[in-house]
Amino acid sequence: MALYIFLGTLTSAGQKLVHENHNLVVEATSDIQVDGASILGQYAVLGRYDYLMLVEADDNDAVARLSLEMGVRTGLHVETLPAIATGFLSDRSGGDPLDSFTSFQRQVES
Fold it and tell me: Which of 29, 40, 52, 87 is most exposed by smallest CB count within 10 Å?
């Protein structure tokens, strides 16, 4: 499964919905069932975005369906970013980046 980051900004309609029900986003996300996608964590954030969510999905289709459901139910405009582990950027073997980190850490400690 791949990791994605949802960055959500409340639309005007979404702001009204959240004002009426402060738990809207939590309640809506607990009710969403999309095959091949799940929300791992969600956070309200300060700054340009209102919410950040960590999502795990089988593929882009599943994450797109989840994003659409989120927007419809919560009034969020969702920007979806695929997350790539930084270990994959330096290791072209395709292995788990944590394995590369562990072997690198052993080399540094030696």
Answer: 40
pTM attached to this predicted model: 0.75
User: Which ranges of the chain would DSSP assign to H, the alpha helix?
Assistant: 12-20, 24-31, 60-74, 86-90, 97-109
9, 74 Cβ separation under 8 angstroms: no
Give the span between the Cα atoms of 109 and 93, in whole angstroms. 23
Task: Using DSSP, state whether 98 is helix, strand or coil.
Answer: helix
Digit-coded pLDDT (tens) for 72-86? 999 999 999 999 888
Class of residue 87 by CB neighbours under 10 A (exposed 0-12, middle 13-18, buried 19+): middle
Supply 40's token pair.
Answer: 């791992």
